[in-house]
Amino acid sequence: MAGIDRTLVRSLTLFNKTSDADLDALLSSAASRRVPRGEAVFEQGAPATHFYLLLHGRLKVMQVTADGQQIIVRVVHPGDLFGFARALQRIDYPGTAIAAAESIVLVWPTDMWAVFLEQNPALAIGAMQTIGQRLEEAHTRIREMSTEEVERRVAHAVLRLIKQAGKTEKNGIRIDFQISRQDIAEMTGTTLHTVSRILSAWEGKGLVEGGRQKLLVLDPEGLSRLAEGYRD
Amino acid sequence: MAGIDRTLVRSLTLFNKTSDADLDALLSSAASRRVPRGEAVFEQGAPATHFYLLLHGRLKVMQVTADGQQIIVRVVHPGDLFGFARALQRIDYPGTAIAAAESIVLVWPTDMWAVFLEQNPALAIGAMQTIGQRLEEAHTRIREMSTEEVERRVAHAVLRLIKQAGKTEKNGIRIDFQISRQDIAEMTGTTLHTVSRILSAWEGKGLVEGGRQKLLVLDPEGLSRLAEGYRD
DNA sequence: CGAATGGTTGAGTGTCTTCAAACAGGGTGG
DNA sequence: CCACCCTGTTTGAAGACACTCAACCATTCG
């Protein structure tokens, strides 16, 4: 499909070993799609017909349990591959990907996955590193949920967010997409009430500045100390 | 290295698309190593010089947090790849792999990883599926830790164990390696005390039969119901 | 301007952890 | 072969952390 910005894609670490020719081949079979805020790219349980690359914006991947509880499995940042369910012999998507901000994604049919990897071993290694990192993030999260109490988990989650989606402002670092207390709760395995209380307390200490679906971190250092378990 | 059982390796799903010639090449650069119960294959933080395949036995991969708390990241079963830290540009092992039973592992130098994948795209896809499955398991565990209370998490963990390491006996299904309450606690993010109480209660209901580092599941059905959240 | 969504805060409660003590079994050395 | 020790397990009691329930407030959007 025409009109895809090659220089933007070129700059992604995933493709830093891919030749220009190979990259053109990849892009030629991709489509790009604009996703408005709040809309789903794909839904949990739907057949995995495509896989995706986020070019611009921000997505939340959510899962709903049998009894209706929601959790956020991960946040997708620009440059991330996502929705590659078929890469592991799944026929459906294990979660729902929702745009937390207006987003642009590249789309390929799932059949292309195996083709690309076989034709392009460097990409296979890159993709594997990507998945491997994701695995390690998941283990980190498991460790945190096993050993840390809620306040530290929330601190870690917020630190991760400003690292991956932080925009420096005059007073501190802003999370550059709309995120609710409910979202943070679903990322840390707690309730929005507890998150609200924690953020209020932090605001009182001058660590952060809240707002409706907004969060500005004033003192990342202090938050780090909290995350590492220093009592007060 | 001579003396590695090719038919055993051949039967692993990981290699079901690998040609005999390629498989021989792989095995020719591997060494096999016997690991007695309680001994570590590699230690957390040590340079990732090798990657491994478990042929026989059972391993626990553990992580220790900064403040000394332990968790079990996963259990390694025969046929599983493990310790492939370098596959994701890590230079050290993120955890410690300890033999929960006398084990036999195949060992390769990490340099071989990239070589194998580039020479053998089918293997790359197989390896990626392996890692992908692991990622999904991790997400499942995160979901359970976020939304389920301890008893259900323990039930899920035990069900997973009998599925992956269950040996049918006359009265039920036995977990076929030594596992302590502490281990189960570290797999589910709770304390050995709570696990002990839960297992005692289950024993009272005739669901399981305990013992020192032993566990026999008498009623998998009943356990499943518990895991799915049916109150009593 | 009103409805809807998101956020705050209080009170009460329950699950699980922590602290503590005692017990069981398996292996080892005398 | 038995006593002892070490490790793993059981169980009780107290307390804390975070959840649930509930009510109210604030902000945004149609």
From TrEMBL, chains A, B:
Q: Which UniProt keywords apply?
A: DNA-binding, Transcription, Transcription regulation
Keyword Cytoplasm among UniProt keywords: no
Cellular component (GO) terms are:
cytosol
Which residues does the UniProt record annotate as the domain Cyclic nucleotide-binding?
14-111
HTH crp-type domain: which residues? 148-221
Q: Where does the source fall among the domains of life?
A: Bacteria
Report a single Gene Ontology molecular function.
DNA-binding transcription factor activity
- Report the Pfam families cross-referenced here: cNMP_binding (PF00027), HTH_Crp_2 (PF13545)
Name-wise, this protein is Crp/Fnr family transcriptional regulator
Species assigned in the record: Aureimonas glaciei
